[in-house]
User: Which sequence fits this backbone?
């Protein structure tokens, strides 16, 4: 299993699974393991010579998952989709320890045999020397007395000991050796007989000896131990203990400091939202950072989420068990405070987002990024498609074509940049354009900024027209009333005209002339009504209506004083009196006309070239005042033409 060393697998949090089918059925096993914690990676053993061929090595992200699963191992998991398929789950530490110890023991014994053959010593002497080096160090081991070479086991017994030690304990690094007590006894009694190996019983906890009944007093005790009596100083030196303790203390000191430094902001879910409290989307983004931190356990994450909640949000999760995963708390909070729109609706909103009037391209890009993140979290777009959708919608919704052309963003759709790279490019271009405009204004000595480019003025005009569509119904109603009033005035003017014809016996040509004027006005009104009904939007049509009103007012004045009108047409007016000149000097030269913008109500320009925001209230007020001035002018004009006696 060389894959464990090559891939640097953490054995303490890894399981090995047998029975893999390499089909979709294996996903049932992964779903079952995800109950205990997140999975870091999967590795497949593909070695026909290995007994674990086609076994899967699954490494968890956190040790807490392995601690929860360890009491259940080994176990058999049955697939939910295919009950005939079973998986055998075992801890890798239980399996790999035997394999590693076997290979290490065999390799170490092989090296000892090679050293013994090269040095001409027996393997017992070489092993004893290595043990002394481990206990006293290499420098002191050479000065210690070595075993007497004359003290040797018989060849048969030695071979039996070596064979028995190799076969009986292959999984231990140290093979059974002759204890120090046995060496001492044989040195004291050199003439004693050594018992064969098969007559000696070896145990782990006690020594057994066999004595002959005839030689009870002179026979020495022979002891063979299957485990050497090693001191703890050899296995675990003091220097190693010191390093381990220092590492544990240092780790425990720094870990709490790291955890306490991260704290979630409070969230209550109150409406209206408090000033210093984030909204749910902002709070949810900070929770995502907490969930991706590998150094924090699931229990600690859930505890921090609960600590950050205030009523009424805290009341929603009160009934949840304290041992629940963070996903349970987030699911409840999402259902109450999250957006109810699905991924498709959020994607449609993202695709219909365009740059607003006066909005910078970088600000528009940031707004798109927020909408796109929400759509991705709801499943409307895959995370891999984030950069492509962001660049595509920015090129589609940004009105600054020069910026898109300078950065060549249309050509980068095949390999779109990330949000960070794109926003840096756009901000750099914006700063470059602003600096250039500032230098130009300083060079030309201009105190005010240049107006926005034509494309922005056009877009602003379009946006304002779209906003005014809500008032179309009211405008249509008012214009229809005005047309009806004009028609009523024409009819009212026709009646006194016919009466005055009969009373004053006016000449036929003058009366017919007045009738023709009225007929033409009525025809113009009818034409405008048919063409502009049901909506009259343009400023030109409004101007024509004002002109028609003025002409009708003039006609009304003429009909009210027909004799003077006829005399004026024939240039037979008498010399004006002083009173008439005095009154005429006080009146304006012509009838008042609208001199304001029908869009913003400001003076000095027309609505077709207006770039200001629409102000319908102010326009209606100025229109009312204009009508009052026109009515006053008409009244004064009638008074001048019909002076009192």
Assistant:
């Amino acid at each position: 299993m060389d894959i464990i060393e090559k891939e640097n697998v953490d054995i303490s949090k890894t399981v090995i699974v047998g029975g893999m089918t390499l089909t979709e059925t294996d996903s049932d096993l992964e779903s079952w393991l995800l109950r205990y914690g997140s999975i870091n990676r999967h590795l497949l053993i593909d070695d026909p010579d290995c007994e674990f061929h086609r076994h899967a090595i699954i490494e968890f992200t956190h040790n807490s998952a392995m601690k929860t699963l360890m009491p259940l191992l080994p176990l058999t998991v049955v697939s939910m989709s295919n009950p005939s398929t079973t998986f055998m789950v075992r801890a890798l530490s239980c399996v790999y320890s035997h394999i590693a110890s076997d290979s290490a023991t065999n390799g170490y014994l092989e090296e000892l045999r090679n050293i013994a053959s090269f040095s001409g010593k027996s393997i017992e002497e070489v092993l004893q020397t290595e043990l002394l080096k481990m206990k006293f160090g290499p420098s002191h081991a050479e000065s210690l007395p070595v075993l007497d070479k004359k003290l040797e086991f018989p060849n048969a017994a030695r071979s039996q000991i070596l064979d028995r030690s190799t076969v009986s304990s292959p999984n231990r690094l140290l093979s059974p050796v002759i204890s120090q007590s046995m060496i001492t006894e044989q040195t004291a009694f050199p003439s004693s007989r050594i018992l064969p190996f098969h007559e000696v019983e070896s145990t782990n906890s006690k020594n057994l000896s066999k004595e002959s009944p005839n030689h009870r007093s002179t026979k020495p005790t022979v002891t063979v131990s299957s485990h050497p009596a090693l001191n703890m100083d050899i296995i675990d030196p003091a220097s190693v203990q010191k390093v381990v303790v220092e590492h544990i203390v240092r780790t425990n000191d720094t870990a709490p400091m790291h955890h306490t430094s991260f704290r979630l902001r409070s969230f209550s879910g109150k409406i209206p939202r408090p000033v210093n409290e984030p909204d749910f989307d902002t709070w949810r983004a900070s929770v995502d950072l907490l969930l991706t931190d590998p150094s924090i356990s699931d229990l600690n994450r859930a505890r921090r989420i609960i600590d950050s909640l205030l009523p009424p949000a805290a009341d929603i999760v009160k009934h949840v068990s304290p041992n629940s995963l963070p996903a349970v708390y987030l699911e409840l909070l999402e259902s109450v405070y999250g957006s109810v729109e699905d991924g498709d609706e959020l994607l449609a909103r993202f695709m219909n987002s365009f740059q607003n009037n006066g909005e910078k391209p970088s600000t528009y890009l940031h707004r798109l990024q927020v909408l796109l993140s929400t759509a991705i979290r709801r499943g409307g777009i895959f995370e891999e498609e984030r950069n492509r959708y962001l660049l595509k919608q920015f090129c589609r919704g940004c009105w600054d074509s020069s910026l898109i052309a300078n950065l060549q963003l249309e050509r980068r759709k095949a390999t779109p940049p990330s949000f960070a790279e794109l926003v840096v490019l756009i901000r750099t271009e914006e700063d470059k354009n602003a600096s250039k405009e500032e230098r130009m204004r300083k060079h030309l000595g201009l105190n005010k900024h240049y107006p926005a480019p034509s494309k922005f003025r056009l877009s602003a005009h379009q946006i304002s027209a779209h906003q005014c569509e809500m008032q179309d119904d009211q405008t249509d109603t008012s214009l229809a009333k005005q047309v009806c009033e004009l028609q009523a005035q024409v009819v009212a003017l026709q009646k006194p005209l016919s009466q005055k014809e009969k009373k004053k016996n006016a000449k036929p040509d003058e009366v017919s002339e007045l009738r023709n004027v009225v007929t033409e006005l009525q025809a113009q009104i009818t034409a405008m009504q048919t063409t502009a009904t049901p909506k009259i939007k343009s400023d030109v049509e409004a101007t024509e209506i004002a002109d028609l009103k003025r002409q009708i007012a003039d006609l009304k004045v003429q009909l009210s004083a027909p004799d003077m009108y006829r005399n004026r047409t024939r240039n037979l007016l008498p010399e004006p009196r002083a009173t008439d000149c005095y009154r005429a000097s006080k009146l304006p030269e012509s009838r008042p006309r609208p001199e304001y913008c029908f869009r913003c109500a400001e003076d000095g320009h027309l609505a077709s070239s207006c770039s200001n925001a629409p102000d319908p209230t102010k326009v209606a007020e100025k229109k009312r005042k204009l009508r009052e001035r026109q009515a006053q002018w008409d009244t004064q004009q009638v008074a001048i033409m019909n002076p009192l006696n």
